[in-house]
Write a structure and sequence with these properties.
It is built from eleven helices and ten strands. Strand 6 and strand 7 form a beta hairpin. By secondary structure, the protein is α/β, with parallel strands linked by helices. The longest helix has 26 residues. The chain folds into two domains: 153 residues, ATPase, nucleotide binding domain (Nucleotidyltransferase, domain 5, 2-Layer Sandwich); 167 residues, ATPase, nucleotide binding domain (Nucleotidyltransferase, domain 5). The relative contact order is 0.18. The strands form two sheets. Strands 3-2-1-4-5 form a five-stranded mixed β-sheet, sandwiched between helices. The chain has a five-stranded mixed β-sheet with strand order 8-7-6-9-10, with helices on both faces.
């Protein structure tokens, strides 16, 4: 029997306005994304005030387009879902207000979804055969975490960043090299022509057995290298710096992911978040996991970056669990991943 459950989800946690309709938690009927990258490029990063104003302009057209592409009316929905944190508070509020108004208007359940839980569930959109438990390496602009994905009712954070997230480090190094925003794709592209062994940047493994991450020291080392080279009037090879920096980040990400999978006997490693689209990371993770018989899965690039389809997928399992939010749901800019499955 086909599951006909229709959920519309809204994602506005940062600088993408997105709305999607999913049927049965997996079938993507629409996934509309309005990006603000060009708006923020000249500032070298996301400006929160501008982001929230852009969301206000785009939210209704994006939702309307998602419904139109799905070929349904608002009243056909079984639930409305929305990212309520973490993220930029002004951006989150736009999505939350829209979702609450829609749920109230059609008298259907409202589902609040943790943004990072959405990234984790992006893996199920294209890998319906994925069996739990699995390990998930979440790597994005603001977060770097290792998560034991035990079931649809249980996740456990095994390790997290103690300072800068991997994606944040990519953005800062890109800015220092004049590569523009967003930094991740720019650094990866430049690194393709570089030598990953050209500069011996440090790897922060922390204490033995730790599954936490720290990238502030690496970021400082790269910035110091650039400063000293410029002071001495030395020519800087941007591709070599990018390749060496990327290799330092990826070596730690991959090493700790495989370490965690072996320690907790998890047969699959999944990738999630914007940095999960990085081809070098995927290549190195595959190579490191294969000798141990560990399978590696990841979403397509469109589902790695912020999108509402992943939010709808995560919301579907909250729908099945009867985990609904009230109309008092509010935006929570700082929301620990540990609270993602907490009943409201």
């Amino acid at each position: 029997m086909t599951d006909e459950t229709l959920i519309l989800a809204i994602e506005t946690s940062c600088d993408e306005t997105s709305a999607a309709v999913l049927q049965g938690g997996r079938r993507v009927l629409s996934n509309v994304i309005s990006s603000q990258i060009q708006v923020h490029q000249r500032f070298g990063g996301v400006v929160p005030e501008i982001a929230s104003r852009q969301h206000m302009e785009q939210i209704i057209p994006v939702v309307d387009q998602a419904l139109t592409e799905a070929g349904i009316n608002l009243k056909d929905l079984d639930a409305v879902a929305v990212t309520y944190g973490p993220g930029l508070v002004g951006s989150l509020l736009v999505g939350v207000a829209q979702a609450k108004a829609m749920a109230f208007a059609i008298k259907k359940p409202l589902i609040g979804v943790h943004h990072l839980l959405g990234h984790i569930y992006a893996n199920l959109l294209e890998h319906p055969d994925l069996e739990l438990p699995a390990l998930c390496l979440v790597v994005s602009g603001g977060h770097t975490s290792l998560v034991r994905w035990q079931s649809h009712e249980e996740i456990e954070v095994l390790g997290a960043t103690l300072d800068d997230a991997a994606g944040e480090a990519f953005d800062k190094i890109a800015r220092a090299l004049g590569l523009g925003y967003p930094g991740g794709p720019a650094v990866e592209k430049a690194a393709m022509a570089g030598n990953p062994a050209a500069v011996a940047f440090p790897r922060a493994w922390l204490e033995e057995g730790s599954l936490d991450f720290s990238f502030s020291g690496l970021k400082s080392a790269v910035l110091n290298y650039l400063h000293n080279a410029r002071q001495r009037g030395e020519e800087i090879s941007v591709p070599d710096v990018c390749a060496s920096f990327q290799a330092a980040v990826v070596e730690v990400l991959v090493g700790k992911a495989v370490q965690a999978a072996l320690k907790y006997k998890l047969p699959v490693i999944t990738l999630a978040g914007g940095v999960a689209a990085n081809g070098y990371l995927r290549q190195k993770l595959l190579a490191a996991a294969e000798p141990h018989g560990i399978e590696v899965r990841w979403p397509s690039p469109i589902y790695c970056t912020d999108n509402a389809a992943m939010i709808a997928c995560a919301a579907y399992y909250r729908y099945l669990a009867g985990d609904f939010a009230g109309l008092d749901l509010n935006a929570v800019p700082y929301l620990p991943l540990e609270q993602a499955l907490a009943k409201r």
